[in-house]
Each structure stands twice: as C-alpha cells, then as structure tokens.
Design brief:
The chain has 587 residues and is α/β, with parallel strands linked by helices. The chain is built from 22 helices and 25 strands. Strands 1, 2, 3, 4, 5, 6, 7, 8 and 9 form a nine-stranded mixed sheet that branches. Strands 16-15-11-10-17-20-24-25 form an eight-stranded mixed sheet, with helices on both faces. It has a three-stranded antiparallel sheet with strand order 12-13-14. A hairpin with a 2-residue loop joins strand 21 and strand 22.
Amino acid sequence: MTTHFNKTSDCIEELINSAGKNLIIGTPLGIGKPNPLINEIWQKAKTDSSIKLEICTALSLQVPVGKSLFEKRFLKPFTDRLFGENYPQLEYIDDVANDKVPKNMKVTEFYMQSGKMLKSATAQKSYTSSNYTHAARDMLNNGLNVLMQMVSVKEIDGRKVYSLSSNTDLTTDLINIAKRKKIKKPIIIGMVNPNLPFMGAKAQVEEDFFDILVDDHTQYFLPFATPKAAINNTDYNIGLLASSLIKDGGTMQVGIGSLGDALIYAMKLRQNQNSEYKKILQKLHIFDKCDEVIKKSGSTSTFDKGVYAASEMFVEGFAHLFDEGILKRKVYPDAQIQSLLNQEIITEKIQENIIEILLQHEVLDEFITKKQMQRLQNLGILKADLQMQKGYMIDSKGKKYKTDLFEYKNIKAIQENCLGDKLKQGVLLHGAFFLGSRWFYRWLHELNENDRELFQMTPVSQVNELYGGEELDRVQRIKARFINTCMKVDLLGAAASDTLDNNQVVSGVGGQYNFVAMAQTLEDSRSVLMVRSTHTGAKGLESNIVWKYPYCTIPRHLRDIVITEYGIADLRGQSDEECVKRMICIA
C-alpha cells in the first residue's frame, strides 16, 4: 500500500524509520531527480553522523551562480529567466566539487556534467565507469535500498495516474533485475511535480508502483533547462557531412550538444532546401572527397519515407525533425508485420486483400484463433468491435464470420466486412530519458494525445541494446546511423570520449559503447563518431587526431566512420595501413 505525504520532511522521517540509517539511494540522471527530497536527506545526514548515506546517480545539473558579487548580479536575471526563480540547487554538488563531503556520506556517479568535476578529487575517486545499460545492475549489486524519482501526474477517468516522464531509463530495469535475481526491491519514492511533461506507454504507472508518494505543492519547480551551445563553422561542417550519411527510411540516434544541433540543422536544410543543400556540398568539395562513402552508406535526397529514432536521449532536435516532417517513419510492435512493411509488401493503410497477404507470408494460420484475432485488432488490421465465440468472429451487429481460412469465401467475407482502416500502435521514437530547453518541455506538454503516443519512453536496456526482443529490434532499426561525439581519435580508429590521458574523467561512457557495438551487429547500420580536428589546450592548438592515446572509450576493433570538418573516414573492415591513411586525410 502506498503511503502519501504532502511535506518533504515527513517523507524523510518515514524513510529513516522504515529503511534504517544505512541508506544507499538511487536517483535518475538529469531532470528526473527530486531535488527537494535529495536536499532534505543530504542535510539530515550532515547533522546526524549516525546516518550512512550514499547517493548513486549521474548527470547532476547545476545552475551557474557566479563567484564574485558582480558575477552573481550579472547572472541572476539570466538564470531566473532560464531556470526559474525557485529552482532548488542540488546541495551535494557544491560539497562534492569543493571536496567537503562528510565522512558518513558519499556520491557516486556513472556520468558527470561534462568537464565540471575535473578539479574535484572527491568526484574523480567516486566515479563509477559503467555502460548505461549496466548502471542498474551495478547499483543493485552495491546494495541499493531506496529509489527516488520526480514524477508527473494527471487524472484519467477520475483516478490519478503517474508518469516516470523524463526518466524511464533505469527505474524499470532496477525493478526487473531485482525480481529476476529474487532480491529485495528498493523502496520506491515518487515526488510529484506537474511541471514535468506527462508521458504515456511504459512511462505511465499506477499509484501502487510506489511505496511512498510525496505531493508537496510548495516544492514544485520548473525542470532544469539546458542552455543552447553556439554552433560555429567547424560544427556546421561536421553536421553537414554527418547529414549526408542519414538514409531515408532509416533509423537514427544522436546526442546533445552543438555537433548534434548542427546535424539536425543540416537535415532540415536537406529536406526543405534540397537544391541549396547539394550546392553547399558541391562548393565545399564534399562530393569530390566523400562521394564513395556517401553513395555506399548515405544519401543527399529528401526524406520521403522519413526516419525513426531509437535514441537513449530524446533530444530537442527530434522535436524539430517531427515538426519538419522528417521524423515520420513509424515502427510497429510486431516483427512479422514490421518486416512486411520494410519490404513494402503491406502499407500502413490496410489493403483490401490483407488477409490473403498475411496467409501467403505465414503471418496467419489457416484458422484465426482468439489470440490471433486480438493481435490483429491491436494492430488495427481487424475492427476493434469483433468478438470470438465458438469459432466465429462476431461483429457489433451480431453477424458471424467463419474463421476457417481454407475456404476463400470465408477470407472474402472477412476482408469485405471486418478490416480496419490503418495500422495502429505506430511509434516514431523510443527513448530512455529527455533533457532540453524550456521550449522543448512546453512542446512536450502541448502534444495532443495521438502525437504523444508516437514518442515512447522505455527502459535503457531496450533502446541501447537488443533486449526488447532481438527479432523486433532488428526489423525496426533498419539502416541505422548511431551518431555520437568524441574528444580524440587515434590513427588506428580507437576513440576517447570521456576520460583524459591522465585518467581524469570528463563525463562518462554513457551509452556510446552500446550504440557503437550495436551498429556492428545490425545489418546496414553504421556508427558515426564526430570529432573536431583540433582544440585549444594548455599548450595552445592541439590535434584531436593523434598517433596514440593512453585511454579509449571505443576500441579500434569497433572502428567504423569518423567525421571531422575536413571529411569522412570510413574505417570499417580496413587494414591498419589504410586506416592511418584515411585518418590523416581528415586531420
């Protein structure tokens, strides 16, 4: 039974009474953190050293405040406008950054805000290097006993239902792993914040999903909104090159940042001003330098079929691609139906001879069972009002239809009277978490119910791997382009994306390795790593294309496509000698 509180402090007292003083608390990355709850337990443990507290999380976000009085006064109007005047800063961030975490307390992160904790010995020592898909497992193995998450709520048919909203990534995986291993499920605490967009499907849960629910109206706040990084000419060049590798009718994943934004901009240009797009490619001599790889692995035509997104992060760019009619290739939760769609044997509009087609391709048996009828109803192939009784399908008017498909007259009767209009349950995007600007959150809030169902939040194990059902994932994620950024690439194709040569962690592995490995596994799919050719370091201008680097996130045996502002290096299946030549050409 779920316990309800309307005060944050009361919830923390109940938590300590029920779970004890040895607390290992998991909380989502990004905006899914219930900041007021976390701050309350952090302060409680600070004043009571008998409480042993560990917070396991990732991507802890902080509003800039400035150090001097002048900086604070300069920043405040900007931060109030962007983040809201009452945004509750996570108090543990400053303690970690300043190496002032008390001995009875600890914060471990598997992904950090890029570059923010380079000078913190506490953060560096407590970093956990895990693939995103392994984070839930590792938390449970380390004794996780509490899970705190911010959730959204709305009324449906007079009852309250809840949404994991921005973070379905680890919560469901944690519960499923605990069940599978037959270990005690962590105490699940949800903190209501109606400012979070309500997402349905696998993000939607009932009240009894939670052990404790907190709805403290005084603690509502606007989710953290990420400022947009400027896109410079180098970024535009890289984004333009990457856009030429996206296949119409394919799949894509992309991360946050100016390089990803540049890619989205170039895709919009390719769609809306295709002749100008091609002229730009021509003037930059991209066709001269990269014609072979573009013809083999990409395209420069418009997106007539569109793309589908399977991306751990639902970035704001996908909202723009949807609005521009680029993100429009729907996928369906049935491997056989999806395969027929891919082969263009069937269409989203239900064909008049669909039952014959399904029989011919062994999707249907010679008898339609109740289970098969329900399957076809869920997909929109058969009308929703049909019922099965004693071997007959019966419509709402009481007319009976034989389910024996040996006789053509029975097939004909079903096709003439029982078919739906178009396929149902189509999805344009599967994602595990989202993070973006105030505009993006408003866009999500304002989606109508039909459009909202096209964007489905799932566990990270489903979107970052082939765990959702490999047969289905393979037919949904066709012609995939998994596009990520890195810091350094050596001449043999190994890439460093999260850690410096002295082992200081900049950010984290996240899901990058998952997508790079998946690109090697899925047919006609490619991993694309975007990297600026140079950066300005302590010694001045330095190349990001190096002979060797002591750390790698992506090993050389998974090398695939690398893009700098100077071109595209296709490294897959090439000898070391050829890789060196191709990398030098884009350095």
